[in-house]
Design a protein that fits this description.
By secondary structure, the chain is of the alpha+beta class. It contains 1 helix and 12 strands; from the N terminus they run H-E-E-E-E-E-E-E-E-E-E-E-E. It has 2 domains: 32 residues; 141 residues, Immunoglobulin-like. Strand 5 and strand 6 form a beta hairpin.
Length: 191
């Protein structure tokens, strides 16, 4: 009997040592550190895009091309984008190939073209087609305006686009009013 109680005591001690090793083992082997990070976001000012003035050719004679100057008040198309200072925006003009007349039940079109220098960019609130202000970028391709910064070059956090173009009426162009949409799009690039 004595032998049996010694074995029981030994097996009990071994069991206790095993339990202690299991409990103490992992905490003794590895240490744990904690780091706390944050999720952050900055909501940018909404871009405000406006068409301030239409591109106006006025009266046009049959067979005689007529231009509207990008630097002429009352002729130049004027577009403006206002947004978050220091942020880059992409600028895009969707330019029509024709102006349309839909009177009298039939449609007629008047060809319009834009040269690679028919757009100017200005960056001050007081800019006009005739007086762009400091830092203006002139003679730009209106079909490829690219990206511009609303920061250092644009102290008022805005960009003006002044647009010119030329219409080419045929010698038998139907009389009447012609028009088409010019769509100006601006979007933050994320830079």
């Amino acid at each position: 009997m004595h032998r049996y109680s010694r074995m029981k005591l030994s097996s009990g001690l071994l069991t206790m040592l095993a339990i202690c090793a299991i409990i103490a083992g992992p905490s003794a082997i590895s240490a744990q550190e904690v780091a706390v990070g944050q999720a952050t976001a900055t909501v940018l000012q909404v871009l405000v895009v406006t068409a301030e003035a239409d591109l106006q050719f006025g009266d046009v004679m049959q067979g005689v091309p007529k231009s509207a100057g990008k630097t002429v008040v009352g002729e130049a198309g004027e577009f403006k984008v206002v947004g978050e200072g220091g942020k880059e925006v992409s600028l895009d003009l969707d330019l029509p190939p024709f102006l349309w007349n839909s009177t009298g039940g039939s449609e007629d079109r008047l060809q319009i073209s834009f040269s690679s220098t028919d757009a100017d960019l200005a960056f001050t609130a007081a800019s006009t087609p005739a007086a762009h202000g400091v830092g203006a970028i002139v003679d730009q391709n209106p079909a490829a305006l690219g990206n511009q910064n609303l920061g250092a070059a644009a102290p008022d956090n805005l960009i003006w686009v002044f647009l010119g173009g030329t219409v080419h009426p045929t010698v038998d162009q139907r009389a009447g009013s012609y028009s088409a949409d010019i769509v100006f799009t601006a979007a933050y690039t994320g830079l």
